[in-house]
């Protein structure tokens, strides 16, 4: 898990369906389930024994309204290929063209529960 000064960091994502969300995010992130869905929670962790941030899925009946105040960024060298891969996993693209800012290019997508996340290509490095 990813430590911080006084413990471990986890990101909690509200979802309507634990199984559907786990199927989506394990494929997209290359994570695995830690335990089984029980009640309202399901933990997803990096597939390897290396460091990473736990993604804790939290089942909620609350409907999503408006833009997420916190979202995940997936940084990649091949924007088009990664967007296509994530869409094939069940995401939908919200932006018709990539957003471009300070050399960064990205698309805004949503997972099957409507949670926004971005797929970004960093600016080229200069030598």
Folded structure, characterized:
The chain is α+β, with helices and mostly antiparallel strands. It has 2 domains: 1-61, 2,3-Dihydroxybiphenyl 1,2-Dioxygenase, domain 1 (Roll), CATH 3.10.180.10; 70-127, 2,3-Dihydroxybiphenyl 1,2-Dioxygenase, domain 1 (Roll). Helix content is 17%, strand content 43%. It contains 2 helices and 10 strands. The chain has helices spanning 18-29, 79-88, and strands at 2-4, 7-15, 31-38, 41-46, 54-59, 72-75, 92-93, 99-101, 104-110, 116-121. The chain has a 5-stranded mixed β-sheet with strand order 1-2-5-4-3, covered by helices on one side. Strands 6, 7, 8, 9 and 10 form a 5-stranded mixed β-sheet that branches. The radius of gyration is 15 Å and the shape is globular. The chain starts with a strand and ends in a 6-residue tail after the last strand. The model has no long low-confidence stretch (mean pLDDT 90).
């Amino acid at each position: 898990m990813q430590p911080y000064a006084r413990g471990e960091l986890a990101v909690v994502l509200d979802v309507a369906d634990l199984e559907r969300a786990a199927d989506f995010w394990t494929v997209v992130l290359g994570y695995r389930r830690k335990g089984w869905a029980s009640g309202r929670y399901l933990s997803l962790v990096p597939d390897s024994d290396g460091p990473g941030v736990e993604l804790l899925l939290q089942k909620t009946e609350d409907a999503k309204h408006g833009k997420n105040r916190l979202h995940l960024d997936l940084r990649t060298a091949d924007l088009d290929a990664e967007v296509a891969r994530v869409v094939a996993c069940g995401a939908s693209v919200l932006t018709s063209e990539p957003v471009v800012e300070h050399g960064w290019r990205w698309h805004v997508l949503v997972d099957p529960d409507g949670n926004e996340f971005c797929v970004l290509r960093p600016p080229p490095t200069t030598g």
